[in-house]
């Protein structure tokens, strides 16, 4: 039988408290030689080595010492000692890791630094100092020297990994993360190697008959490899490292004969399966620059991952390796259950948080998420990564875009592309999000909306941690969300659109009649216009070498960087131009420019023979695209300004009409503009200048001025889905309910004509618009009349909820949206069977799936809400640098085309945002005077003045 490598304690064992030792242990020497050189130190395995017995050895004697709960100790040594070793824990000594709760499987050790303050760090890595010759100790700091043996620069961590990872100085914390992972990687090597050696046939390792001897053999072999390395270090993730270390330890230090090492049992089972187990652990502990940035923001994740890996190895590796002789699948069975084992490891997140100086960790919750683009993303398979519990699950959104995530702690939620947008889709057209929504949710919330701003907030949170000089150890919070909205001027205290009491931007649990809700909706739509159509366009310019997802991912990183520096302007044409141009130039070998074509080349390209666009031609194309897309986003800005003006003055406003018009604008951008952009990108990528010029002229004409407004008026959306989203929302706060009754819809007049009819309690529609069915994804042509280009425009909603802003800010009862519960362990059965239109893909999850961080940020993350400065009027900085994100479409019928004419309903009734069971009960209000008008910006391209057409109401 192989020696029992693991301690006999049950998992979760924690040793009894031990009194803190006296500062000076009794001396074995006569009185004349009493030690007087006192030093302090800290011992850790991964977490603090708590209540451990240890010794200080200086060549003159051995002096007992003990650690506190935090792993600190005070000891003494002989003053004349040249070098003092500290050993903590070991066979038979009570000693536990604070994070895993398990006894230390072997001793940790270190060497006292003889600086101005004598200090010793005892850790798995610093134990290597006992096995590397003094000629390799070229650095005066022993901790730095030890970690250099495994390729880590610990210059910023002279007092140990836990002190470094706790630091609020970002550079020091990054060092601490690397030190923690180096300790965990080395421990995983030692545990797996010793477990493998212990499984050798009995009597084949005559010099290693105890567990301590096996540990010393493995450490000695690693130290010898460091000493023999020309670089002075070893790579712990080396593909052959495990096999080399075990073979050398068996042969050179444990006395194994060559026949033993070459036997089938050792080669084909022990070494092969042990290496597989070790490599699996190393994959969990590997780091990249992107991951280090994430862990800098959330160091609790680093400690959780490393602790769980070590818990599983320490509790299961030895038995799996020992069982291979009788069960060749023993390690495979462990690996098959690897993910569950990590998730279920009973490590202490509270002790980790305490070590980091954080508040205690809230318990896991069932969290309801609402996935949204312009509208709810329905029947969508959402991936959920709980970084702290190391669990990955899936959930499927219901018909309202909601899903329940069970037993999670501030997870990273990823909504894949290809999910149906319930508001923009109709019975004839399916509109999907074209890029993934990846967002972190706060720890202590039971409800969260995942939308474009949530994704940007996540990117800002991570970008700040990667670049700011100081970073608090914490998780993303509602204040992070509020700071991003505050940057856009939304929800600031003391303003007309201030957040209602008890509401926040994570849950979006404001009453549906709140100005802040309308403004938040439009900010999300502006970001979607920036990221959806433009990401697809740039991807097309690059010939598909970069996917829309990749471009959007990069764009979000750039937006985060520019938001931190105060230069983000989501609806500005110059900003869009620089965003697209900067990415295109960075992604093309030539920097995106080509030599100016000769006349012959010009004629050949006009004929469609295909030459790269010149720099001037590309600049012209990007300018047209940016100005045209920005023109459509300017309509959203105008609606937003109307909400702000009404909120500040307390005047009447048709807020439901605002929502409907905003959704129609988004529909045009996603269903008409996006395909046109794709056509231009394809022509540009092919070098077909003739086709490109024609498409550019058509694009500019069709999506500017009167043509754009006509498209907006004609855009079909599902008003029932929009009403459900606004009424259900993601609210959970129960507030006093106002009385409800049927009321009159608003009326208005302007340069465009139209009127609203009266709606009774049954929600009957008046005239002034066309209507469609309210259920079943049936298209609704909303009767919202948009006025003249350069003059006054009125949103005259028909049978829509009309209210006064002052009354709307009163407290109301908002019913939470119903949602099914999903068991992530069972196959998901979608409503009505599998929906081919629903997104079925799953975004790759895990720490490394978070957005990469930009290389430079000039403004630190604000510590108080509202600290982001709004974008200055100066020209924005050219974007550059990497991170994640989300929107797209399956085509829609163009207004005026035969397909649209044939499909249009005959003589439709006026549209009504009718009350539904989910609808919010709004307080009755008398029919107000004309709603506050909005002045639409001039959208036509620069040209001589021309008569401004008046857009008549749709009848």
UniProtKB/TrEMBL annotation:
Residues 870-885 have a biased composition (Pro residues). It comes from the Eukaryota. Residues 590-610, 730-773, 807-828, 870-933 are annotated as: Disordered. Residues 740-771 have a biased composition (Gly residues). Residues 894-933 have a biased composition (Low complexity). The chain crosses the membrane at residues 780-803. Keywords: Membrane, Transmembrane, Transmembrane helix. This is Uncharacterized protein. It comes from Pleodorina starrii.
């Amino acid at each position: 039988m192989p020696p029992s490598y693991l301690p006999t304690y049950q998992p979760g064992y924690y040793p009894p408290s031990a009194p803190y030792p006296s500062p000076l242990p009794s001396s074995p020497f006569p009185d004349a030689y009493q030690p007087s050189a006192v030093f302090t130190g800290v011992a850790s395995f991964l977490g603090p080595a708590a209540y451990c017995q240890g010794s200080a050895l200086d060549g003159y004697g051995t002096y007992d010492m003990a650690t506190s709960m935090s792993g600190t100790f005070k000891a003494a040594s002989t003053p004349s000692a040249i070098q003092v070793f500290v050993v903590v824990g070991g066979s038979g000594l009570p000693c536990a890791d604070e994070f895993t709760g398990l006894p230390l499987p072997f001793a940790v050790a270190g060497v006292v630094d003889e600086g101005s303050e004598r200090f010793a760090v005892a850790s798995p890595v610093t134990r290597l100092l006992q096995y590397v010759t003094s000629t390799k100790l070229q650095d005066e700091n022993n901790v730095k020297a030890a970690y250099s043996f495994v390729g880590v620069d610990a210059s910023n961590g002279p007092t140990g990994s836990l002190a470094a990872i706790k630091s609020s100085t970002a550079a020091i914390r990054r060092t601490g993360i690397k030190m923690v992972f180096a300790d965990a990687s080395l421990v995983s090597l030692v545990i797996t190697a010793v477990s493998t050696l212990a499984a050798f046939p009995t009597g084949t390792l005559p010099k290693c008959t105890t567990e301590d001897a096996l540990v010393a053999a493995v450490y000695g072999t690693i130290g010898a490899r460091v000493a023999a390395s020309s670089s002075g270090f070893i790579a712990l993730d080396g593909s052959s490292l495990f096999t080399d270390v075990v073979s050398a330890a068996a042969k050179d230090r444990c006395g194994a004969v060559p026949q033993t090492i070459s036997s089938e049992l050792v080669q084909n089972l022990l070494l092969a399966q042990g290496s597989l187990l070790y490599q699996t652990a190393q994959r969990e502990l590997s780091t990249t620059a992107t991951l280090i940035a994430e862990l800098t923001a959330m160091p609790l994740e680093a400690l959780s991952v490393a602790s769980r890996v070590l818990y599983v190895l320490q509790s299961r590796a030895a038995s799996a390796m020992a069982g291979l002789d009788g069960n060749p699948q023993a390690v495979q069975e462990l690996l098959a259950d690897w993910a569950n084992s990590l998730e279920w490891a009973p490590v202490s997140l509270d002790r980790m948080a305490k070590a980091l100086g954080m508040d205690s960790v809230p318990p896991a919750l069932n969290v309801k998420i609402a996935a949204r683009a312009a509208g709810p993303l329905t029947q969508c398979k959402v991936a959920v990564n709980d970084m702290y519990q190391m669990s990955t699950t899936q959930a499927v959104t219901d018909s309202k875009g909601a899903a329940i995530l069970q037993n999670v702690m501030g997870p990273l939620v990823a909504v894949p592309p290809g999910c149906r947008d319930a508001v923009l889709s109709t019975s004839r057209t399916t509109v999907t999000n074209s890029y993934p929504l990846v967002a972190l949710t706060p720890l202590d919330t039971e409800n969260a909306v995942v939308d474009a701003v949530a994704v940007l907030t996540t990117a800002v949170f991570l970008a700040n941690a990667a670049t700011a000089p100081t970073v608090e150890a914490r998780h993303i919070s509602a204040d992070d969300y509020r700071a991003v909205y505050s940057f856009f001027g939304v929800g600031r205290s003391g303003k007309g659109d201030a957040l209602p009491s008890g509401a926040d931007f994570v849950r979006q649990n404001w009453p549906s009649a709140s100005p802040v809700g309308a403004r938040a909706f439009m900010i999300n739509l502006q970001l979607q216009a920036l990221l959806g159509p433009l990401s697809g366009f740039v991807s097309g310019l690059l010939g598909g070498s970069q996917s829309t997802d990749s471009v959007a991912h990069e764009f979000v990183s750039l937006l985060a960087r520019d938001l931190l520096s105060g230069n983000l302007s989501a609806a500005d044409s110059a900003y869009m131009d620089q965003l697209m141009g900067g990415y295109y130039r960075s992604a093309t070998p030539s920097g995106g420019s080509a030599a100016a074509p000769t006349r012959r080349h010009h004629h050949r390209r006009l004929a469609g023979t295909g030459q790269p666009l010149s720099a001037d031609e590309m600049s012209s194309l990007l300018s047209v695209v940016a100005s045209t897309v920005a023109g459509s986003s300017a309509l959203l800005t105008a609606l937003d300004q109307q909400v702000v003006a009404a909120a500040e003055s307390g005047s009447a406003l048709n807020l439901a009409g605002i929502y409907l018009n905003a959704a129609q604008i988004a529909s045009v951008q996603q269903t008409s503009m996006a395909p046109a952009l794709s056509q231009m990108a394809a022509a540009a990528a092919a070098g077909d200048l003739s086709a490109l010029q024609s498409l550019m002229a058509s694009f500019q004409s069709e999506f500017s001025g009167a043509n754009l407004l006509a498209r907006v008026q004609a855009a079909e959306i599902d008003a029932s889905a929009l009403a459900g989203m606004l009424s259900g929302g993601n609210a959970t706060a129960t507030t006093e309910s106002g009385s409800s009754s049927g009321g009159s819809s608003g009326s208005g007049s302007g340069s465009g004509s139209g009127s609203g009819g009266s709606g009774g309690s049954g929600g009957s529609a008046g005239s002034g618009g066309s209507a469609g069915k309210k259920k079943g994804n049936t298209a609704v042509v909303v009767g919202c009349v948009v006025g003249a280009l350069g003059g006054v425009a009125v949103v005259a909603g028909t049978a829509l909820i009309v209210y006064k802003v002052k009354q709307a800010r009163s407290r109301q009862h908002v019913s939470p949206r119903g949602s099914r519960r999903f068991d992530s362990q069972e196959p998901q059965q979608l409503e009505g069977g599998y929906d081919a239109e629903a997104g079925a893909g799953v975004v790759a999850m895990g720490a490394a799936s978070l957005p990469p961080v930009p290389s430079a940020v000039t403004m630190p993350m604000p510590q108080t809400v509202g600290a982001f400065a709004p974008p200055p009027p100066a020209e924005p900085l050219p974007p550059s640098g990497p991170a994640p994100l989300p929107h797209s479409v399956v085509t829609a019928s163009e207004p005026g085309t035969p397909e649209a004419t044939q499909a249009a309903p005959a003589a439709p009734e006026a549209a009504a945002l009718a009350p539904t069971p989910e609808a919010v009960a709004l307080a009755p209000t008398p029919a107000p005077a004309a709603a506050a008008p909005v002045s639409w910006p001039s959208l036509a391209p620069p040209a001589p003045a021309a008569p401004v057409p008046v857009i008549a109401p749709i009848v």
